[in-house]
Amino acid sequence: MSDARTEVLARVREALGRGTDAAPAPAVVPRGYRPAGEHAPGSEPVLELLVDRLVDYRAHVHRVAGAEVADVVARLVEEVRTVAAADADDSHRAAARPAPGSVVVPDGLDRAWLAGLSGDDVRADARDEPLTATELDGACAVVTAARVAVAETGTIVLDAEPDQGRRAISLVPDVHVCVVRTDQVVQTVPEAVRLLGEHPGRPQTWISGPSATSDIELDRVEGVHGPRTLHVLLVS
Amino acid sequence: MSTFLGMPDAGAPATVSGVGRPDDPLHWGATFPDAARTALADEQLRRNLGNATSTIRAKRARVVGEVPDWEALRDAGSALKTDVMTRLPELLEELERNVTARGGVVHWARDAAEANRIVAGIVRAKETDEVVKVKSMATQEIGLNEALAEEGVAAVETDLAELIVQLADDMPSHILVPAIHRNRTEIRDIFLERMADAPPDLTDVPRELAMAARAHLRRKFLSAKVAVSGANFAVADTGTLAVVESEGNGRMCLTLPETLVTVMGIEKLVPTFDDLEVFLQLLPRSSTGERMNPYTSLWTGVTPGDGPQEFHLVLLDNGRTKVLADEAGRSALHCIRCSACLNVCPVYERVGGHAYGSVYPGPIGAILTPQLTGEKSDLPYASTLCGACYQVCPVKIDIPSILVELRAREVELSGAAPDTADRVWQAAMKAASYAMADGGRFRRAARLPRALRAIARHGVIRRLPFPGSLWTRSRDLPEPPRQTFHDWWAARERRAGTRQEGER
Amino acid sequence: MRIALAATCIADAMFPQAPRAVVTLLERLGHEVVFPPGQACCGQMHVNTGYLADAVPVVRNHVRTFAPVADGEWDAVVVPSGSCTGSIRHQQRMVLERAGLDAEARTASAVAGRTYELSELLVDVLGVTDVGAWFPHRVTYHPTCHSLRMLGVGDRPERLLRAVDDLELVPLEQAEGCCGFGGTFSLKNADTSAAMLQDKVGHVLDTGAEVLTAGDWSCLMHIGGGLTRTASGVRPMHLAEILVSTREAPVVPGAADGRQEVAR
């Protein structure tokens, strides 16, 4: 390997006062913190906490039964379209939004959730058949599932599996509709990390509310580059 | 600030141009006391900083207060970072193995110049003249943007605050909120002056400013071929990298371009994936004062069909092994760049980041910068040792103790080549040491201030000659007492002795 | 109890009313106070300015002077200063170890283990919060950084103050903020120090208190030096000077420039 590698590693060893001897054993780290919450995943207190946190981030939360998902998705997309159409009247935005009607979905998404949408409105994205960034920029919304949600921090994690899709699809469209099953909601961060650690190689996106900045006088502005609107469907 | 001489934008509003890009991002500008004096004279800056830091302080306190096991998390974070430093060679090799196994390419850089050469080489091979960048302290530290500019490559900062700083030809003044020294009106002026596609009717409403930046950058995100990022954490046992952010510019850079280059200090490791459960709790609450930041991205090498299909990781030394070599100062490398210490620091709050003359300002900068450069520095003295930084540090870096250690190092360095001020201090400290190492000598020396009673009026001394003037310029000195405590006690003992004798 | 007093160099030379008050107060509570005359300074100024070699003889003198507490000759050492107590507890051993004086470093640890800041001594060691004081004045309390964060004295001083008859304790805005003293910081970074002082003085004036108290005369000297420039009449007084005040022997703020004899 390169000289730099050898030299940096040699400097590190020297700084530690070590030769090329074997590594010390890993230290015993005090882990007195909570490995899990006091409430079971999917229990009502955990769900209430998640809703509270999400609302605090100004995400829109909809608690629905499984059979209602398709209706709610359809209603939300209809709302988005109305807004997008209004936007399109604005001349300089129209150019940036050639297809205000299309909804992007990962190809592994539960199709039953899309039953309320007409087929030609929906564009499926897959790793082997990806939409271009420009196509994604033209879509009005994306619908995905999720891998796990953390109640205490109001976080939803996507791990890019077929029902959640490539990372780009939940990023470029301006509205993200995310469907989370109640049994996916854990109370604490460590519970989620342990679960995600089963497949650490998957690309993960942790989402806690819509994109935001506080860079101007610490005045929070929601929606900078990521989706400006986040809808969470909490499905029991 | 004046702009009429020699500035590139003679017609620009006075507020637009920043401090300029220094040759050495770790050492620029005036001495700390002088730079502080200039900053203190800027009332607007003091108000901006005061408002900003008190807001973040309150937010942090609120969200930390709701975590019942916060101290246990800090203990774990501290122990994990200590473990990382102890096993750094092995963990770096483990990281390299895992990143490589997942299709990434690992590079090593001894210093800033080498890191810049590596990045420039990768970009050149992609035949592009523009890269998008995620906010990164490591690339600020090595002056990557300037190095790329020399190669004809424009590095576009995409974090809103970094964009503001870049457009204004300025330097960041805070680790987390680099444009904390700018108010909304200044930012509007910067956009109007320096951002070609800014709407001409732009107001100074933060939402409008943010939307102007969104529109400006979106075109760049959608077309960029190469992105450059830093990393918040690198997991040795999986090869996973993590970037923690708010705006989504990070996700754009980490996801859309074909090629991603990540520049990371060698200290940014955590041993195992599970250890993220500690740091992903500590960092956001300490940093932005949120329960969790809006977006965290984790990736491991290359994922076929998802995100960049070419990934380069540059492991940067640039003085870190010097820090590591100092056992007393080593824990400065534990820093996770949350900036909580800046927000609670009474010195930072008043003088801002530029006074520190380094991309790493505030308490952590005062211990990290001099150790990274190994040069003589006045930064270890830029603190009252009030201890607020240590109290909030999520990985429990004992900054005050390290400051004292570094002051001892400064004294050694100045002992070798003293200037006039050094000689005055050395003489004063020697004299004080002699007087204070013996009760009898001290008792006599303690009577000396009594002579100042002659110039006291109404119980105070208003003006003293130099160096006493350093004190009396801003405060009175109380009139010294007629009798020291030592003398009072001796007199009391004598009286008691006399009484006892009389009683006999 | 037999309690040795470490008066601190700054109070000894400039504010002897504070250690005098400690003597009177502890004697009033029925304890015997000893003042080892060999004492001078704890070495904090040298250490915090980086002059560790010059600190060594100063620290050695302190450790030697107070070593009898480690042998049980006295029960405790009391210090009317949070920062000096902090230096004794957290720095002296380090200074001696670095100088290769391992035996003395061990003695330093033993001495430090029996050394208490005044409010710690009263509340934790002597177990009193009501010391029988009377002080009919409006008082605000500045916690001082080293008492608060290096020692963690918590609300002990405030508990002592609340137990004082007729004392009105008014809260200080941003009380935990540093006053800007920082020892030689006030000289090396005089402008920044002055800016911090300005804010602290403003908060003190906002309380409308007659008296500003703290457990450390160094910070009080700094804030007091700013207060007299405002002609506000707010008087800096050490915690001990308030606790020593009784109906029989009241301490009047500002009488004789605060230098009144409080002990016989």
From TrEMBL, chain A:
InterPro entries: FTHF_cligase-like_sf, LUD_dom, NagB/RpiA_transferase-like. Residues 48-235 form the LUD domain. Signal peptide: none annotated. SUPFAM superfamilies: NagB/RpiA/CoA transferase-like. PANTHER family: LACTATE UTILIZATION PROTEIN C (PTHR43682:SF1). This is LUD domain-containing protein. It comes from Promicromonospora citrea. The lineage of its organism: Bacteria, Bacillati, Actinomycetota, Actinomycetes, Micrococcales.
TrEMBL record, chain B:
Signal peptide: none annotated. GO terms for biological process: lactate metabolic process. It comes from the Bacteria. One of its GO terms (molecular function) is 4 iron, 4 sulfur cluster binding. InterPro entries: 4Fe4S_Fe-S-bd, FTHF_cligase-like_sf, Helical_ferredxn, LUD_dom, LutB/LldF, LutB_C, NagB/RpiA_transferase-like. It holds the Pfam family LutB_C. Residues 417-493 form the Lactate utilization protein B C-terminal domain. Keywords: 4Fe-4S, Electron transport, Iron, Iron-sulfur, Metal-binding, Repeat, Transport. Coiled coil: none annotated. Residues 332-397 form the 4Fe-4S ferredoxin-type domain. Residues 92-315 form the LUD domain. This is Iron-sulfur cluster-binding protein.
From TrEMBL, chain C:
It comes from Promicromonospora citrea. The lineage of its organism: Bacteria, Bacillati, Actinomycetota, Actinomycetes, Micrococcales. It holds the Pfam family CCG. This is Glycolate oxidase. PANTHER family: LACTATE UTILIZATION PROTEIN A (PTHR30296:SF0), UNCHARACTERIZED PROTEIN YKGE (PTHR30296). GO terms for cellular component: cytosol. It comes from the Bacteria. One of its GO terms (molecular function) is oxidoreductase activity. Residues 6-88, 139-223 form the Cysteine-rich domain.
